[in-house]
Design goal:
Mean pLDDT: 88
CATH superfamily: Electron Transport, Fmn-binding Protein, Chain A
Strand content: 35-45%
Radius of gyration: 18 Å
Largest sheet: 6 strands, antiparallel, barrel
Protein name: General stress protein 26
Helix content: 25-40%
Order of helices and strands: EEHEEEHEEHEHE
Number of helices: 4
CATH architecture: Roll
Shape: globular
Length: about 170
């Protein structure tokens, strides 16, 4: 794989592309405790500033852990296209009606009996501090065909179909 470090708008674009493509991440808290607490979370959106938004219950362990330590780690995987993203950042919890209204998804009703008016609804914003990505240029099918061709011919892969690097906002 070649290395391509991204900054500012390019980094935001890559973070948005990969996170929204994967949609689900492993959301990790209490990073100094082993084993690290992690759970799957569905991304609501990645905004134009690179912040990642999630809906959560204010009574969840995750929220309690964030109140003690705002540092979180997110791992996104889109195996279908060989795309991966790791984000270390700080989390902020919102309980105000305007943020809940803005970030609400009808799918979240499955977890909140009273919908967006449920008193347990909270919104988590993760502000990336450090990010690293792995992405194929051509997608899964072309990468797979190149791999198979190399196996058949006995050649080794030159890893030129992929790119990885830091994404710093």
């Amino acid at each position: 794989m070649s290395t391509e470090n991204l900054t500012n708008l390019e980094a935001i674009k890559k973070i948005k592309e990969l996170s929204e493509s994967a949609k689900i991440c492993m959301f990790c808290t209490e990073l100094e405790t082993l084993p690290i607490n992690s759970r799957p979370m569905t991304l609501q959106e990645t905004d134009g500033e690179g912040n990642l938004w999630f809906i959560s219950s204010d009574t969840s362990n995750k929220n309690f852990e964030i109140k003690d330590d705002k540092r979180v780690q997110l791992f996104f995987m889109n195996n279908g296209d060989y795309q991966y993203l790791s984000i270390f950042g700080t989390a902020t919890i919102y309980k105000d009606k305007s943020t809940i209204e803005d970030k609400w998804s009808p799918m979240a009703k499955a977890w909140f009996e009273e919908g967006k008016d449920d008193p347990a609804v909270s919104i988590i914003r993760v502000e990336p501090k450090e990010s690293y990505y792995w992405d194929t240029k051509a997608g899964k099918l072309v990468s797979l065909l190149n791999f198979v061709a190399n196996v058949v011919t006995g050649n080794t892969t030159d890893n030129s179909d992929g790119v990885e690097g830091n994404a710093k906002i």
